[in-house]
Every structure is written in structure tokens, then in C-alpha cells.
Amino acid sequence: MNKLIFSSAIVALCFSTASIRAQDQAQDAAAAQAEFLDALKLAPEHAHLKSHVGKWTTEMKTYFEGPDSAAVSKGSATFTLLYDGRYLQQVFKGEFAGVPFQGRGLTGFDKTKKKFVSTWIDNFETGILTMEGTYDEKTKTMTEVGISHSAEGETKMKNVTKQIDKDTVLFSMYMTPPGGTEALGMEITYRRVK
Length: 194
Fold this sequence. Notes:
10-stranded antiparallel β-barrel
């Protein structure tokens, strides 16, 4: 009789333990699913990207010959949102030193890093520039940093994008070449087409 009671207790314990494990696994699966669904949601920072959507004219000033010798050229840019507002795509067309210049950029907010992340490609390079940074709501300024690679070595890059008003944006690109000091390389003034 004691063996029967003991055996019954062991069986009940096994079923109880299996039931508890199944409940824990179900709770873990539910928590993982909830975490996954939360990761799909846009962050409040994504709302900033919407302000750039539309067509813009551009005036690009390059300072590669020094701060007093700006070369000026005109162009255009179109900004669109991708994937339900997760990313902002820029398609840029203009001219640089008398040569047609085209570029494409993507900007998004990485919820994991808690930073804005962007990429840039154009018809003058073969690399992909990646930048990371933050947006200051008070000053309406995004500041991003990254590294550009070339035959001369690594150049530190800093891009500062300031929303002057809802129809005007000033983009400034600063570069620090190997062994050099930071200098303004380019400014682009974007004006919304109405």
C-alpha cells in the first residue's frame, strides 16, 4: 500500500512538474511574442522623419578649396517614407564641379541603439557611408557622425541638419581628414517646392 501511495505521489509530481514547465514555456512564448510585436511599433522619434517628405530645390555650396572659395550649384531632392514610416529616403540630383551628381540616402531611427542611423551612396563613390546620431527637438537639429574611407585613409565626418522652418532645411557636412582638423566641406540649403 505504501508503494502504491508513493508511486501515485511520484506520478502526480511528474505531471505537476510537466504542467508547470508547460505553463512557463507558454508564458515565455507569450512574452517573446509581445516583445517582438512591440519591436515592430514605430518610436516617437520616427515622427521627425515625416517633416522632410516632399520635393525640394537645393543650393549646394562646396568649400573644398577653402572657406572663401565656395562653388555653388543647384539641384533637387525628393524625400519619401518607406515601410510605414520607418525610413526616410532621399533621392538627390544636382551637379558637382560641372559633373552630374546623384545620390541616395536612407535615414531611420534604430530603437535598439536609440539613435538615428543613415546611409549615403552616390555616383562619385563606391562605398556606403554610414552615420549615427541624435536629434535635438529644442534646436530642431540632427547631428550625425561617421567615417568615410578613401585612398587617403579614414576621414571623420559630421553632418548637421537644421530645420530652419517647415520649408527650409540647412545641411552642413564637416570633415576631418587624416592628420587634419575639422573643416566645413559642404552646405546644402533645401527649400520645399510648394
